[in-house]
Amino acid sequence: MDKIDAGLRAEAVLADIAGSGEIWRPSFTSEYMAAKDKVRELMAQAGLRTHEDAVGNLYGVLKGESECTVLTGSHLDTVRNGGKYDGACGIVLPVLALEELVAEGFRPKKTVAVIAMYEEEGSRFPSSYLSSRFITGKITDTELEERDKNGISIREAMQAYGYDPADYKSAKLDHISAFFELHVEQGPRLYNCGADIGVVESIVGLYSYELTLTGKQNHAGTTPMNMRLDPVLEACRIIDGVDSFVRAETPSAVVTAGGIRSVPGLSNVIAQEAFFTLDFRSGSQAALDAIDGCIRRRLKDSEAKGFAVKLTVKCAEPPCRMDSGIAAAVQAAADAAGLKSLRMDSGAGHDSQIIAASFPTGMVFIPSVDGVSHSPKEYTRPKDLKNGIKTVKQLILRLAGEAK
Description:
Elements: H1 6-18, H2 30-45, E1 49-52, E2 58-62, E3 66-75, H3 89-103, E4 110-117, H4 130-135, H5 154-160, E5 176-184, H6 189-193, E6 197-203, E7 205-214, E8 218-219, H7 231-249, E9 254-263, E10 269-270, E11 273-282, H8 285-305, E12 308-317, E13 320-321, H9 324-336, E14 341-346, H10 351-355, E15 361-366, H11 382-400
Parallel strand pairs: 3-4, 3-5, 5-15, 6-14
Antiparallel strand pairs: 1-2, 2-4, 6-13, 6-15, 7-11, 7-12, 8-10, 9-11
């Protein structure tokens, strides 16, 4: 393969996997399976041996002298109306890198495998990171009963496509010496500073809360302002207060309010109930704890005013450090490829944070133009795709070694 055209070829492959129209690949759907079939074909064309495990993870394997395995890959599912680079890049680029290495006569000491995972995004089921929890043995029988919006369980969705959820424990991996995940940054730092490669040192902790305030429903025109118990207004006060706290006290963190709605949601009625979400992230556990404390203090203040308060913790993931040895290898790989790198944290969650608890793990970022992601406007330039392939090649050489 002509190395000059590697980035353009990667772009064409990603476009083919994405197809036409809205991009949405929920796990265990016809859209997801069609994309996986294309990835399987790509792996086979690259000279990799392909197989699936009992729960539907797809592997492309280059056998080495040792069963000890360097694993790489990412997720193939997408958010609704998302982009074609998020996740899929981390599968396609390593496959193309291995294709080049095989064509160059590369024979690894360690086995190298590329995995196509699913449900990282929570694209169909409430929980995220389904594949990475399967391969690290972090799934239970009870979790297989989790259901999508149509009432279909994970177990049923798997069975509909011929997989065997009863054998899910067999998906757990052993003999993994290293895992690395290539991903588009999904933020603007690399693009804005002109760096080619992000060397990820940690993934920020992510907390997600659902909050409900119950006040007193009443007539919008006849109820004096000083006699109202308006949960919508109180929700606004909480959101503004938490935002101000983060800006002043934990400036390295971020907080986002969303999912805002009221009941009954009419223009001429003071609401009975207000619902909203708070998502906050930081690489510092102390900052996360401080934000949590701020939220809970404000909710106590709301209760003192007469509001009924409900807080549901949907997610509380601590910060996750990447393996320092793999980070050093990523740095060395970028240097060997003649690329400018930047040490950084990831502000988004990834399968890597689940896998890092079981195997030495690292991440490689390539730029997203203007930092846009989870959008049809998501775009990574062919030259950045090519740089990703170059870096992955060098990284595989360092982590897997060459047979003599």
